[in-house]
């Protein structure tokens, strides 16, 4: 019996181990499937929420073509044209231009000389009376004048040097600006600002600006940039997160490629662009009815391409740095502004962007 019991005990242990392994594998598979389903539901919720986006873009990195000079041919006149022929000729055109003769100017009689009587010399019996010269005080202090001259010679070189340095600096600044506008070096800047959803007025202002902006001219593009920055600066109490980057590129083609890559990266976070204004052409789409939770955040993205040879802004980590960055972008001259694109989500007030969706879609935002 002892010998027959050992094989049975061995096979019983094997069956028990197989049963335990099967139970462990089943539990592991169940847990994995449950987590995968949860992740799928979360991603589906992220993709379904915050689907509306607004977009306004204008400008180009291409160098503007200079207008062709207008040429007006000089009319040729014939000396043999008759005086009465009025088509293309006039009495003034027929007569050659030559100075008027001297007889034209009226001749005035030369003024007579003025004779001043001079007293005759005194005779031998004339005795002049003695005269006494009294000292006259003219009020001039020679020492004071000398001190003024010394101070003048001492201060004059300093004043002249200051004027020369100021004029040289202004000339260098003007030359640097002309060089920046003439070369192909460009700078692409991205600034993102996340705000609390209570800033509904900002959402409406951006919609109005995108609908009414004139993006076909540099002045209209610059005005859209300034108005967008003013709308953000008027709501500092709602700022929560920010992100900034500014990169200088050596060619306009490279700047255009980087700008389009950043634009596609931000636009891919929208499921639907409910308001678009590109080059002055406005297009709208209706947002489907959604039972999403009330919005928690609004994200505004500014993409700016300029003719600057150096980065415009640095890293933003506080509200003061964000304010400085916005003011710097708002001070861009229309001559330097090449391309500007405004993006914001959600565009529709019925849409929602929760905190989880903000973290999932914009993981590089820095909390202020």
TrEMBL record:
The keyword Transmembrane applies. The keyword NADP does not apply. The chain crosses the membrane at residues 142-163. Residues 73-82 have a biased composition (Low complexity). Keywords: Membrane, Transmembrane, Transmembrane helix. Residues 55-97 are annotated as: Disordered. This is DUF1517 domain-containing protein.
